[in-house]
Amino acid sequence: MNAVMMAATDGTTIAKRNLIKIKRVPDLIVFTLLSPVMFVLLFAYIFGSAIEIPGMSYREFLIAGIFVQTVVFGASWTGLGLAEDMQKGIIDRFRSLPMASSAVLTGRTASDVLINIISLVVMSITGLLVGWRIRSSLLEALAGFALLLFFAYALSWVMAVVGLWIRTPEVYNNASFMVIFPLTFVANTFVDTSQLPPALQTIANWNPISAVTQATRELMGNTSPSMPVPDAWPMQNAILASLIWTVLILIVFVPLAINRYKKAVSR
User: Fold this and answer.
1) Helical pair 103-130 and 58-88, crossing angle rounded to 10 deg
2) How far out from the chain centre does Cα 107 lie?
3) N or C: which end of the chain has fewer CB within 10 A?
4) 219 Cβ partners below 8 Å, 6+ apart?
5) What is the per-residue pLDDT for 28?
6) Total count of domains within the chain
């Protein structure tokens, strides 16, 4: 019990340290928040007029996709922060302290959840300004936000593995974009998957990003009977599929991140 309490306390301390770092370098969070706002304005006002969604406004269709894209990009902070700490030797300083070794990873992933909460608040306000509305109950909408954060937390562990493996912030940025962009664009984030070529439709319908996006739309009431749901199982059972994907990611990548961290600090 003492070891668990120590790990939790140390993880909380590391999370506070990461948040203080952002406070001291505010331009990091500012540009992180500006990026999804830019995507909303570009797609809503420039591409939105050319994209038709049966039975509903494109802006309402769009916002759930932007939410998912925002938390996915937010999860990439985990790997970037770890890569920077490895490069600057801060991880070596942590090793010299009487602290739980798991605190670095748990603190890093926890602080990035808080960053994603801030991002979602900003995106919700932006969405309301461009015409997005929640059409479901408050509890369903809160469940949608909780699902987004849970999925983002799982992705943080994926990015932790990438950050510990690459270890150079500049290279990590390029590598993470190579992963994130195909995942978020070959999905139902910005367009209905029925508008994609057949081969890409299959990939998009089984993409975990699509499941989370569809689940978010359903929980927030941003769907239309005029827009048929694809026959793929994840799209027909989007909430369950999102939870399964999230749990599987955690089962696979939490041990991988811990193992990679132990190897990285043992050098």
Assistant:
1) 150
2) 17
3) N
4) 136, 140, 141, 143, 144, 147, 239
5) 66
6) 1
